[in-house]
Structure formats: structure tokens, C-alpha cells
Amino acid sequence: MKTLELLAPAKDLETAKAAIRAGADAIYMGGPAYSARSQAHNPIEDITAAIEYAHTFSARVYVTLNTLLFDEELPIVEKMIHELYQRGIDALIIQDMGILSLDLPPLPLFASTQCHITTPEKARFLENLGFQRLILERALSLPEIKSIREATSIELEAFVHGAICISYSGQCYLSYALGGRSGNRGECAQPCRLSYQLLDRYHNPIGRPKYWLSPKDLCLINDLENLIEAGVTSFKIEGRLKDSTYVTNVVSAYREALDEIITKNGYTKASLGSISRSFVPNLSKSFNRGMTSYWLHGREKKTGSVLSLYTQKSIGEFIGIVTFANHQFFLLDREHHLAAGDGICYFDKNKHLQGTRINTVKDGKIFPDVGAFIRKGYPIYRNHDENFSHLLHTHPPERTIPLSITVEETPEGLRLLATDPAGITACLEITTAKTLAENPELATESLTRQLTRLGNTPYRASSIEIQWQKPLFFPVAQINQWRRDLIDKLHATRLSHYQRRLSPHHLPEKLSQAFSPPFVDYRLNVLNAKAFSLYTSYSIQPSERGAESGLDLTGKVVMTTKTCLRLELGLCEQFSPYHDDPPEIPPHTKPLEPLYLSTSQTLLRLEFDCKACEMRVILISHKKR
Fold first, then answer.
1. CA 537 → CA 241, 530, 534, 611, distances in Å?
2. What are 56-107's pLDDT values in tens digits?
3. In this structure, which of 25, 128, 156, 161 has its CB flanked by the most CB atoms within 10 Å?
4. For 473-492, what is each residue's pLDDT tens digit?
5. How does the average pLDDT of the chain come out, rounded?
6. What is the 3-class SS of 292-353, one letter each residue?
7. Is the pLDDT reported for residue 583 higher than 70?
8. What is the pTM (predicted TM-score) of this model?
9. How far is CA 544 from CA 71, 126, 532, in A?
């Protein structure tokens, strides 16, 4: 019986709780340092609070320590890992192989997507090293995921929603090469989101500048069953820099979709709790640059460009086409539900993204803020829904554990029992005087009402049974105190019964199957002596240290990607293009290669490996400001 996990991001304690309330079976959050999002580190105290909140619902907390590390940082990381273990985290997500040689507590280790997991051979290598889970590269197709599943026996985790790194994860050095901020050290400056001019061999411009390295956002909500069939059991939402409203909406949408699949197929949910919400989740209302299934279905399936060529910003949801516009208001071709305070955006005649706010809507007329140059025929998108955002803030989802409460009369007074769905019970023995109720019906109602008032707790009374010879009278304040004591005892008992999946670590003396990485240069990402020693012990000889050791990357590959601009331009000889817009190349004209991408400071050369169906980006020059 498959157990399926919905895994959500948490940049801080507030977002962690929002994710759990919305239905996440697990969350992943940055530790105090060395996570792949340096702006999303969390103090130990907040991680501890998130653990208690998550474990209330049998949900798990995974901590990311998934950056490359220098030698002097390893003792700090080792101490941090032990403290996180003592606080109760459920697993550690790592990239640096040097961590495997530390003195580690028996925590499950997950191989970060930064480990560049794209082949069965790499997957088997990581499994042999003792990893309990592999977090797959986003660019994999379903057949590629299936081949990894067939080659391994450990858990597979896949991203299903959110921003995409256009490069293979762990294989992008562009940010470090241009400004010293390494993505493998959690400091990516996102140069992939810049606008670049495409150039031919002679540096003649091809069309206008575009966001040639900026993908749309991933959305696989309609492919969850395909991923399950391929062998994935953990479905990951990207976004450790996103706020609680984003996480609430996206988690809610995937929770609904996954629950439907679980019910239909008899799978098991990975956590407990019933969720109620007062809103209908809508993925298009949260930050997105347009949505794509990326390369999940391969290159053969025509699903439109994977790139967001005309903006790196959120466009939100499509609202309608402008049928009339003047300097005061505009009209749309359909019912729109726009309201004052909404943010809208549109592409002008030069395909530049413009945005404005709605001041008011009256009789179908939409009055934007001053300065909006909206014209007839423009598609309008809403990238901020004021009412929806307000609803998420004021009426967030509620997640509760149903309890059965029993009241038994004893010779000394009463016995209160509370039992959760897993059969965990708390018992409160009460010694108290017994006074027969003058109004038996009212006394029963009062006891029932006060014992089921659990509104400020994560519990709800699904049933209550009172077993007494005759109704007794007890003061309301006394009943309330009994209820608090009973729930506190149950909560502590449930947390004490929570069981982590622990796993001692033992590196194998030799590998059951040899592994030869495709490269042993800086792209092997070795920064410390322990990682170097680990590789050499398995007959893998790094030829140099990682880029972050101070390498000059001029003339070297700074990005490798499955996204190919030959394909985008209609120049691929194997696959026909699929364009959201026609390419800006004259018909029957083929630009002379090599092709380049440039900004005012940077020149990059594009190299196409048609056998591997990959594009590599090579740094030619960069002028530092």
C-alpha cells in the first residue's frame, strides 16, 4: 500500500504552520545556516516549534543543509546536525558528500536535487552511500524517472510546482562566475532571469532581447497519477522564499488533488487530521510566470514553450481581452470579477509587461490607476486578487484531529478519557464531590458543551459519551479546567508516541556497482577534503576542486540545461518547435552558429550537444561593475 507525501516549503515558523494547516504531510525548512536559500535560514528555537506543531498531526520536518562546504565549516555543521537531531527533526537534506564522513546521528539523509540526480547510475551510487531518499532533477521525463525507480529501492521525491532552475540543479555556476554569489552556496543572484540579446556568429542581433534563460513555473497537478505510476511517493512544492498566502493556496490545491487520488486508489495519507477551508484553491492566483509541465512528457509532446520569454515576473491569471479602452476605463470580453485593489498586468505593443492597480469597478467599467496605457485587444491578467488574499489572511484553513471523549463515573468522582484516531488515549482521574443535578438535562448539556469546546486547540470532539448513574452538577469553571488538563495530557502523550524513522550511517567499503561520473572537474562539486577522500575511496578521482574554491570560469561551462534555444528558434533537426509566439527569424533563414547571449556586461556562448539533447552555456567574457 503506497503512502503518499505532500511536501511543502517553509521559509519561517509562520509559513511552516500555514503549510501544515493547509494539509502538508511534511515541510522542509532551512537550518540556522548552510541551506541552499541563504535568505531562508531559521533559528533552532523556531525549528523546534515547527517540529512540535507538525508532529501534532504526524507530519514531518526536514531540514536543508544542502550547500557545498569548506573544510573549516564541517565541524560547525556536524555540531548543528546533532543539535537538530536532539530537537527532533525527521531527516536532513544534503548536497555535500563530505557530510557522509562526519560523526552523524541516525537521521535519514535525503540527497538534495543539487546532487544532480538524472541517471540510474547516479541514483544507485547515492543509494549505496546510504541515502534514504533521492530528490530528483526537475527536468526528468516520466521514462527517465521510471528507469531510476527500477534501478533503486529507496524513496523518490519530485518537484511538482513552483519556480524552475533552467540549469540542471547543482550544475549552474553562472551566478558565481558573474558576481561571486554561488547557487551551490545558497546565494544565487538569478542571472538566468535577466534579459539577454541573442547574437549570431558575427555578433549580429537576432530579434529583440528576451528572457532566453527564464523558464515558466512548474505545474504538475494534472500529472500526479503519472508520477505515482513512475515511482514517486513524495510530491514537493518549491518556494522557501514564498509567503504564507502562497503556501496556503498552493498546498490546498495539491492536497485536494492528492486526496482524490488517495481515495480512488486506496493509498495511504502520510499524516493525520481533517482540513476545512472557506476558499476554493486556485493556482493561477498565486505567483507564476505562466505554467509548464517542463520536460515531464519529453520533447515530442507539444505543450508550448517552457520559457517565459517576455517577463521574469508573475503574470497571474488570465482575465479577458480588452474590447474598449479610453483614458478613464476599459471593458473586457467576459465576466471578470475584478475589484478595487486588484493588481493587473498586460503586455504592451512591444511585448513589455506593464502593470497597474484597479481603483474601482462600476457597471462593468474597470477604472485603473492613473498612468495605465491599456488598449483594445490587450489580454489582461490579474497578478494580485485583493479579495482572495484577504480571505487567505482572515480565514486560513483549519486542520484538526478528531477525538472521542468518554466520561465515566467512578466511586471517587469521574474518569475522563480522550482517544485519537490512532488509538492513543489520555486518562484523567478526578476526585471530586458529587452533587445530583437539579436539572438533569441542563447538567448533561453543560458537561457536553464545555468538554467539547476545543476551539483554541488542534483537536475537535467527534463524539462524546457520558456514563453516570444519574446526572451530576459541576461548575463550568471546574469542567473547563478538566478539559484543559485532559487535552494537555493527550497532546503530551501523542507527541511522546511520535516515532521517527531513524537510520544509522555506515559507508560501504566498496560499491556493489562501479560508478563513473560524466565529469570529474569542478562540476563534481568537491570543496572539502572529506568529499575528496570519499570519492577517491570509490575510485573516482576529482581533477580539481569546485568552482567556489576560486576558479576563473572564463571559457568554461557555467550552465547545462535540457532547454534548447535551437528548439525554441525552430532550428532543431530532430524535433519540431512549439511556440507561444513565432520566432523572430526570417523564413528559410538559419543563423550562423555559434550563437551567443549578451548583456551590456556579459557574453555567453551556446553549445549544443544533440546526442545528449542538452545545451551548455559557456562564459566568454564579463565586465565587473
1. 38, 10, 5, 32
2. 999 999 999 999 999 999 999 999 999 999 999 999 999 999 999 999 999 9
3. 25
4. 999 999 999 999 999 999 99
5. 95
6. ECCCCCCCCCCCCCCECCCCCCCCCEEEEEEEEECCCCEEECCCCCCCCCCEEEEECCCCCE
7. no
8. 0.96
9. 15, 21, 10
* Residue 251 and residue 19 in contact, taking contact as beta carbons nearer than 8 Å: yes
| CB-CB contact of 152 with 135 (8 Å) | no
The full set of domains in the chain, from first to last, is 3-164+215-285 (3.20.20.70), 310-394 (2.40.30), 400-497 (no CATH)
52 close to 63: Cβ distance less than 8 angstroms: no
Q: Residue 178: what residue type?
A: L
Cα-to-chain-centroid distance, residue 58: 19
Does residue 478 sit in helix, strand or coil?
Answer: helix
The cell for 129 is 552511500
Asked if residue 163 lies in contact with residue 218, where contact means CB atoms within 8 angstroms, the answer is yes
Are the C-beta atoms of residues 429 and 408 closer than 8 Å to each other? no
Whether the bond between 518 and the residue before it is cis, its omega within 30 degrees of 0, is no
Q: Tell me the C-alpha to C-alpha distance, in Å, between residue 128 and each of 151, 152, 352.
A: 12, 9, 50
| AA identity, residue 606 | L
Question: Rounded CA gap, 166 and 560, in Å?
Answer: 8
Distances in Å between the Cα of 170 and the Cα atoms of 135, 182, 213, 547, 561 are 12, 10, 16, 11, 11
d(CA 275, CA 106): 33
Which CA distances in Å does 372 have to 325, 361, 369? 10, 15, 6
Chain segment 327-342, per-residue pLDDT in tens: 999 999 999 999 999 9
Residue 588, pLDDT > 80, answer no
Greatest pairwise CA separation for the chain in angstroms: 99
Write the single-letter amino acid at 580: D
Parallel, antiparallel, or unpaired for β 596-598 and 197-199? antiparallel
Joined grid coordinates for residue 489: 495530557
Phi, psi for residue 319 in degrees, rounded to 5: -110, -40
Judge contact between 397 and 19, C-beta under 8 A.
Answer: no
Q: What percent of the chain has pLDDT over 70?
A: 98
Asked if residue 538 has pLDDT above 90, the reply is yes
pLDDT of residue 117: 98
Instruction: Give the CB-side neighbour count of residue 387, counting CA atoms within 13 A.
Output: 9
